[in-house]
Amino acid sequence: MYKIAICDDEELQSTLLEKMIDTYMINQGLEVDIDIYSSGESLLRGIRNQEIVYQMIFLDIEMDGINGIETAKFIRESDQQVLLNYITSFDDYTLQSFEVSPFRYLLKPVKENEIRILLDAAVDKISSDNQYLFVKVNRTQYQVRCDQIIRITSEKGRKLRITMCNNQEDIVYYARLKDIIANLGSSIFVQVNYGTIINLNYIERIEDTIVHLTNGDQEVISRGKKKKFVECYRNFIERSLGI
């Protein structure tokens, strides 16, 4: 399910935009949950207090209180992945607005064909960037942000357990480890032993063949996976340092 936020102090504009997004998603057969906020302050409270993670946010630039640009700066402090879309009445994009890497700009009044074009590009980007892992638990489909996955472990060969960051509840579902490896970003996920894949971003330290993760868990690097792991981790460090 896609989580989308609309932040605009004009209620009519928010309602129309919500309807257009909802119509697009229904036509594409995609599930969506849209939250509406009337100020930057209320959006930030929703994100911080409820630990909500959005894939897309539509921000009005001109709002009372903190404007859309300042709101976006606060959001970027903790989330570099969300697609930020500015809504404005003026065809004047200040240099400040580019600091937060906006995805698109929309001029008011927003037109349905413009929303369709934007959402086509957004859905394609989310898919191509491989930011999400789609899992099904019973009859419920979950869209899990890959950058919040610490590790994925196999349980008795029939179930997988996804360990999430920020004390989020584990997700357990029926699947095999080998079936999801291709769906994960190979640049940050690596298999360390027969039953475990870890996210390299959550490594705290490595002692010989023991990987210590930031949540306190440990994993053993098997002999057969060690060479590949060392190579992947070295490449990861070099990319992180810009080497």
TrEMBL record:
Domain of life: Bacteria
Pfam family, one: Response_reg
Domain Response regulatory: 3-123
Domain HTH LytTR-type intervals: 133-235
Alphabetic keyword roster: Phosphoprotein
Cytoplasm found in the keyword field: no
Name assigned to this protein: Stage 0 sporulation protein A homolog
Organism encoding this protein: Enterococcus diestrammenae
